[in-house]
Amino acid sequence: MGSGSFIAGKYRIAQRIQTALALIYPPRCMGCGDLTESDFGLCGPCWRETPFIGGTVCESCGMPLIGGQDGFRTECDDCLKTARPWRAGRAALLYDGKARSLILALKHGDRPELARPAAQWMAQAGRPLLRPDVVIAPVPLHWSRLLKRRYNQSALLAQNLGRETGLECVPDLLIRKKKTQVLDGKTAAERAQILEDAICLHPRNARHLIGRDILLVDDVMTSGATLAACTRVCQAAGANHIFVLALARVAKDA
Ligand SMILES: [Zn+2]
Ligand SMILES: [Zn+2]
After folding, report:
1. Domain boundaries of the chain, sorted by first residue
2. What is the pLDDT of residues 86-138, one digit of tens each?
3. What is the pTM (predicted TM-score) of this model?
4. Which ligand places an atom closest to the C-alpha of 224?
5. How far is the CA of 12 from the centre of ligand 2 (A)?
6. CA distance 44 to 197
7. Which of 17, 37, 158, 159 gets the most CB atoms within 10 Å of its CB?
8. What is the architecture of the domain spanning 50-249?
């Protein structure tokens, strides 16, 4: 028996194991647990209830916009009002409906397996930002929160995105050295400073950053203040262009 047919035989065995596993563990919908056609997917009803972002979007945050591209840079009202320090941003979902429950399950429900399909959606939405030499880095979480949740959901998304796209991912490029204090009652400038003081570059990772483009990954973008703080830290350390990619964007009136 030649090595070709030996490999083919091995492949057939692997296929049979796969089929047997599918019979024991049939693929289930990530949203509701119903049976689906493929692993890590959503069933029809869950798919329809998940607000994927498409069409014309804000160049800075990925929010869907009404109206078509006019050849100029398109931005939402939020980004026109609060200038973003990063170059461009995208989000895969609106933080609403089924998207909200999927993200809460990823964040607090101990369901890290959701990061894989989520990263695939992010790769799709973030395609215009995925330059060949970009370094993917997550928004950091303070260690005390990490203990409570066991994992940083943004780091998990970043790692899965790296695997999905073949791009370099540095999960601890940034670290959160201080727990962020309560920001209520502070001005926008004070909040920005507090956030920026809490985040720093991991000393070991400085070489990953100088002159490189960075893609910052977060699970949810609300005001964008944390992403802005991370952007400024990267810029101060000598990074080139910064891009941001969130799994979901909170609409202002949500
Ligand atoms: Zn479902
Ligand atoms: Zn925007």
Report:
1. 50-249
2. 999 999 999 998 999 999 999 888 888 899 999 999 999 999 999 999 999 99
3. 0.85
4. 2
5. 50
6. 45
7. 158
8. 3-Layer(aba) Sandwich (3.40)
